[in-house]
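Both lines are quoted verbatim for reference:

——
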Amino acid sequence: MRPAGLRIVHLVDVMGTTHLWGKERAIAALMGQQRRSGLATRLVVFSPNAMVDVMAGMGFRTDILGNRPRRWPVRALAKLVALLRDEPACVLHTHGYKANIVGRAARAAGAPISRLVATVHGMNDDTRALAFYNRLDRLTAPLSHAVAVADSRLPPSFPRAAHVAYVANALADRAPFSAAERDAARRRFRLRDDAFVVGLLGRVTLAKGALDVLAVARSCGDPRIVFVFAGDGDLVRVTDAPPNVRFLGYVDDADSYLPALDVYLQASHTEGLSLALLESMRGGLACIATKVGSTDCAIDDGRDGLLIPACRPDAIRQAVERLAADDALRSLLASEARARFVAEFTLERHHRAYLELYRAIEN
């Protein structure tokens, strides 16, 4: 089958029901690029969620296999097989451990799939349940024709029989953030023009380092520095946050928020390759990031950002204070981050990597 004739069905295990997080935004971007390249692509999910509404609004065909989230969507398997019989010889591209395992079961049940590709966007083993599901995902990986991982550390953890490839996350390019965008973002979120704004984007949880950042804010001696969280999560409603911390809630357009920042901070304890980090690099922001997952595939410490150890509030504070005191260094890191993004993390490169993976397992 020639690439121009490929039909791709994306089966996605969506996180949550009301917001699009990094994984969902990455998949949406890939589907958009595939459609622009002339490929037929559609979305299938297990239960109603915001991603269905967004993608349907963009004109994509969408299908829902059930009416509510289930830990193991057994009934969805028969519906998926029937759906795939109406889309014979397609590429089934699965995302997340639940989708990956169900996709493999569909292939075993005789669904007419020409190629089965699974993407592992990250493996968070914070709970026993997640550790079990991720292990099951790895053990069954050889049942997919290929597995793409967004974390470069993961390939050795898969069985030797699995075909595993590292495919970095990516974004469509745009111009660096302008002064006008900065002014508009500061007005929108009511941030003082003379403040030094250190911002985070994503879930406000323990795993994302929220408590570490709050500890830094309490000990910060520079009154100019403000720490801003854009996102929802368990720790949004903490009652003892210091006055130099702002919680903005979920922000659906990163490009309306990120220009307000002087520095982007990734404080995660665990991460694959953060889409928010790439969005910040794309916009030309200086970045501080914990050295977890594949973060060091995007940032060389001291060259295009600052890498720090995870779970170390003191390291966060030192890095923030260093950039707040050194305008020249911050400007250099911002420029180099932008250049690194253009060289390695554009959506076109991401799309080509998946096309090559589809071709490599053809026939």
